[in-house]
Amino acid sequence: MQNSQKPFMITRNLDPENQETPIHFINEDLIGGKLFYRRNHFSYPNFVSTFYWLPVGGVVHYPKTFSLKEILGLPPRTIKTVLECAGNKRGFFKPKVFGDQWKKGAISQGSWKGVSLRTLLEYTGIAETAREVIVEGYDFGERTDSNQIHYFSRSLAIDKALHPDTIIAYEYNGEPIPFKHGFPLRLIVPEWYAMASVKWIKKIIVIDYEFKGPFQAVDYVYYPKKDSDEGKFPVTTMGINSTIQQPLDRKILNTGVHILSGIAWTGNGLVTKVEVSVDGGINWSSAQLVNVPERYSCVRWSYKWEVLKTGEYTIMSRAADSAGDEQPKGAMWNRKGYGYNAIDVVRVKVE
């Protein structure tokens, strides 16, 4: 009899809805919309998409408001990319930090189709003084640190905004983007943590100054010190990282042969290798990369482990990329708990 059980989302918060992908049970390259992790700062927005228009203004030569039909008629671009919440694995920081205690599932991968942001800006032109491009979403609410209402807004430096793979997406895995993931239009910024990929785009503004919105200047900033802002710097590119999907942590196994498996990803180049240790980091062996590394995408890996002795074992994985970065033994602690990318660890018992 076929097993009809299916994985389900792991809830971290209900309002706003924040749920993890059941990453340990996902074997597909593309994750469907129902199992794509959900990260929200506010309740879902209310707007009528039937009359959707996208204004592009600011320090541009020809301000323009695009209809959805116009955008759908522009030359398309499709990008397969992993999106990772900057708070992914926050729950593993020591000492603990405040915020949703994400484990390993605030990460998903899919295929996004849309139009390059660059294409829209070519229609409007940009002034020579332009420094950044603000993308504002329809989601808004009151921040606890200021008791003020804010829309979720982020900016990109001009060079990142004009990269051809920075796209305004309208399809996910060949279908319209699900509402909970940004329908009808979502910004997709490959290589960066997903806070940059603004959902439910409301407007685009080109500016000639540094954007200081709270989701840019307060949140999504690394604060290395607990009691001061000294040494702070912005959260941008994803760090080299890996996750052990199987076996699960604290699982009981029999002696014999087991296939260890997982994923690895980076925001800087390509994953070049994944290594596995089954003795707590004393010895390391190369895992097999199941698929050819692609820019922006996860690599699946596996390792054949034959265990003959009973006892407790610490299994670890670490990845390296073409930029020369390797997963560190310990993640860089920071006050808001962003960018955790320490060597992954699970512990099992063999009986």
From TrEMBL:
Residues 42-214 form the Oxidoreductase molybdopterin-binding domain. It comes from the Bacteria. Its cofactor is Mo-molybdopterin. Keywords: Metal-binding, Molybdenum, Oxidoreductase. Gene3D superfamilies: 2.60.40.650, Oxidoreductase, molybdopterin-binding domain. Residues 235-344 form the Moybdenum cofactor oxidoreductase dimerisation domain. The keyword Amino-acid biosynthesis does not apply. This is Sulfite oxidase.
